[in-house]
Amino acid sequence: MKHRLVLAACLIPLLGYAVIFQGGALATRSYLNEASLQASSALRLAVSALSGHLSRYEPLPALIADHQGIKDLIANPDNNALREAANSYLRNINALLESSDIYVMTMDGSTIAASNYEQPTSFVGQNFSYRPYFQEAAQGRQSRFYALGTTSLKRGYYFASPIKLDGRISGVIVFKVDIDSIETSWRGGEYKIFVSDPEGVIFMTGSPEWLYSGILPLNRERLQRTEASRRYAEAKLKPLPIRLGQLDGHRLMTIRAGQEREYLVLSHYMPDAAWTVNVLMDTASVRTQARTTIIAIMLFLCLAGLTLAIVLQRRARLAERMRMQIEARGELELRVEERTADLALVNRRIEEEIAERRATEQELRKTQADLIQAGKLAGLGQMSAALSHELNQPLAAAKTYADSAAMLIDLDRTEEARDNVRRISNLIDRMASISRHLRNFARKPNEKLGPVALDGVIADTIEIVAARLKTAHAELRVDVAGAPMVVAGSVRLQQVLVNLITNAADAIEDLADRCIDVAAVRDGGNVVLTIRDRGPGVPPAIAERIFDPFFTTKGVGKGLGLGLSISYNIVKDFGGSLSVSNHADGGAVFRIELKAAAAAREAAE
Predict the structure, then answer these.
(1) Looking at residues 340-368, what average pLDDT do you find?
(2) What is the 3-state secondary structure (H, E, C) of 275-316?
(3) N or C: which end of the chain has fewer CB within 10 A?
(4) Residues 431 and 461 grouped into a single domain
C-alpha cells in the first residue's frame, strides 16, 4: 500500500505537465472542430435562404417580357396609353409578387415604364445603360446583378431579360428584388454573417457597421471596376481592419474594429450570383472552454491522489461487501425466477387475448368492406331505372339506324348507309362507356392508397350519376381546375362522390333552383372538396346523427341509411375527414378534406 502511494505521488506531476502543454492544444482543436460543425450548419442555412429567395424571382422577367402589353409598348414607346397600361400592369405585378421594382427600358437604356411611376423616386425617364445587367440583357442573355440603386438608394438584386419582337431584341425588362428581410434575420444571432462581392466588398451583413467595408485590399483596379458599374452608387467604401490566420486547418479572422475579436470563418461561394457567404463564430467561447477543460483536468489530477488512497484503503471493505452482494444476488435470482414464471403465464394470456382481438378486427374490416359494397349496389339499384332509360335510347336509335342502313344498301346508297353504321358504332361506344364505369364502380376495391387526380375521378363520377341528374333536372357545376392530386383510392373516392351527388339530387328534385356545385381548393397541406346543393339543408337536430349507420331521412324503400356512414368511414380510411354544414344562402354543404399527395410525400421523406 505504501509503495503504491509513492508511485502515484510521482506520476501526478508528470501527468500535470503533459496536460498543461499538450492537453491545451488538443482541447482547443476539439472545440474548434465542434464549433466548425455548428457554423457549417448556419452557413448552409444562410446559403439556402439566399438561393431560395432569389430563385423565386429568376424566371419572372422572361415571363413578363412575353406579355403582349409590354411588347406593344416596346414597339410604340411614345404611345401614352400603352405607357399608362404598362405602368399599371407593372405596379400590380410588383405588389402581387412583393418585389422591389419592375421597369422596362429601350435599347438605349432609357426607362419608359416602371412599377414606381407614381413615386418621387420613379425610374421613368432614367437611363441605366451603364449597368452590367442592361448590357448583358441587351446582348440576349439572362442577367443577374447586385447593386445599390442610384435613384432609390436601396440595395437589391436585379434580374434582367431581353424583350424580343419578331426574333429581334428590342428592349430590356428588369426585376429588382429586396433582400433586406434576409439581412434582418441575421442580426442579433450567435453568428456574424456577411456576403461579399467578387471585389471583397461586404454588401449584406447582420452587423450594419461592416456594410460597404472591404475584406480585400481596396486597390485601384478593384475600385475602378466597382465605380464603372456604379454598384454602390455614392456609398463610401472603406477597408475592414482584419488579420487572417489559421489553426489546425481552420481559418481565423481577427477584426480590430472597436474591441478586437477573433472569429472562426467558414465561407461558401455562390457561382450564379458571384457572391461569397461568410459565417463568423466568436472563438472566445472556444478558448474559454479549452481553458476550463485544462483547469478541470488539473483539479481532477489533484484529487486523483487523494481518491487513490481512499480507494486502496477501502478495497478490503469492498471485497467483504462483494461477498455479501453475491449471497444477496443468489437470493434475488431465486425470486426473479419465481416472478418470471408468473409473468410468463400472464404473457400467454395476453397473447391469447391479442389473437382474439385481431380476429375480431379482421371480421370487422370484412364487415365494413361488405357494407361499402352493399352501399354501392344499393346506389346502383336506385339509379337502375334512369340508367335503363339511358341505355334504351341508344338501343332504339341503333335499331332505327340499322333498319335505315338496310334500306339504303338496297337502294345502293352505300355512303349514307356507312354513315348510319358509324352512328351505330358511336352509340355502342356510349353504352360501353356507361357499362364500364358501372362495372368499375360495382367492383370490390382492393386498391392501395396513392396519388389520385380529382378531375379524373369526378369525370368518371359524372358518367355514373348523369342519368340521376337528368331525371332530377339538376345542373352539376364543377370547379376543380388546378387542384393538386390527393391521397386516396380512386374507386372508393368515386363511391363517396356518387353518394353525395345522388343525395344532393334527391334534395333539390322538386325545387326551383336545381344547381349542385362541386369545388376544390388547397388548404395548406390538404385539399378541401365541397359539394353544395340548394335544398332545405340539414336540421340541427340530426346534424350529429347524419353519419350514423342506418340513419336516413328518406321514405321507406328509398334508402338503407348506409350511404353517408360508408362515405364517412371511407374518407376516414384515407386519413381525411367528412363533415356537413348549412350554407349561409341555403342548402347543405358536405366538406371532404384529404391530404395533398405532394405534402404527404414531403412528410414521408
Answers:
(1) 83
(2) EEEEEEEECHHHHHHHHHHHHHHHHHHHHHHHHHHHHHHHHH
(3) C
(4) no
